[in-house]
Specification:
Blueprint lengths: L3 E4 L2 E4 L11 E5 L2 E5 L6 E4 L1 H9 L6 E5 L9 H6 L5 E3 L5 H6 L4 E6 L2 E2 L7 H4 L6 E3 L15 H15 L2 H22 L7 E5 L7 E3 L4 H9 L2 E2 L8 E3 L2 H7 L3 E6 L5 H10 L7 H5 L2 E5 H4 L5 H12 L10
Helix pairs in contact: 5-6, 6-12, 7-12
Amino acid sequence: MIKYVLVGGLLTLNALAAGAVDYPVTVRSCDRQVTFDRPPQRVVVHDISLASMLLSLGLRDRIVGYTGFGDSKPREPWVLEELANVPQLASRYPSLETLLDANADLFFAGWSYGMRVGGPVTPATLQPFGIPVYELSESCSRIMAQRRASLEDLYRDLLNLGEIFSVQAEAEDVVAKLRARIESVSDSVSQTSEKPRVFLYDSGEDRPTTSGRLGMPQALMDAAGGHNIMADVAASWTQVNWESVVERDPEVIVIVDYGPRTWQQKRDFLLQQPALQDVRAIREQRFIVLTYLEATPSVQNALAIEKLAAGLHPQLVQDGPR
């Protein structure tokens, strides 16, 4: 019997309907090839965005712990409800001991998503203990040359996870639904050559944290018909100077809703910044709010693109997010 479940707004096949995979299975992870002799049974996942991918594939029963949710990042009730009985093993980055104590047979993480170059937890440090790592594709720009963030990174991760866990049908189903929603938006905004200038504001007062062309927001803005004013910055999540924001005069500001400050508090801070008073987005008070899950690689990226397109091109996208 084929079972369907609703996860994060996506109708997906249940893992019971998965077709068998011939193991061993080898997938590409950043600049490495990773081989699995069997589907992982005890996964530790870092970050709410990566957890959403596993949940969308019906893999809740494989997750034995998660890390990196912190105390204020998650504003996604459906993820927290799905993981209600799963322990948070570390509010920030895990230690080697954390993963060993969990008896993990897979760490799903990324660079700056649970791992740092030269840090205590990396694919190289975990290899002697038999714990494979699958790396978030968007994060690969931290360790290898990348040209620009792409939605293909998200699709690749979902399909690779489908291979790793022998749930290809579920992965293909999720990817097909994401593609259809995103292509619908792209078709709508393609009717105009106008691309409003957009600045993404994550956090920071002395210097704002934003996203350059290597972060997922770049791909989201591209699909929604916007121009990332920091597209010339070869970085994913990074800090810039307020002067560069003023010089580029964004027409719209996207606020990422997470952290200890609410999006309203972040908006009010921007509105009160003397240096920003002549910026068009501030004068016209044009803001779009995305949750952390929507702004980072996750199954909520289609919703993010719908919200962005509705805010950037209201005359073309009448219905707004679905």
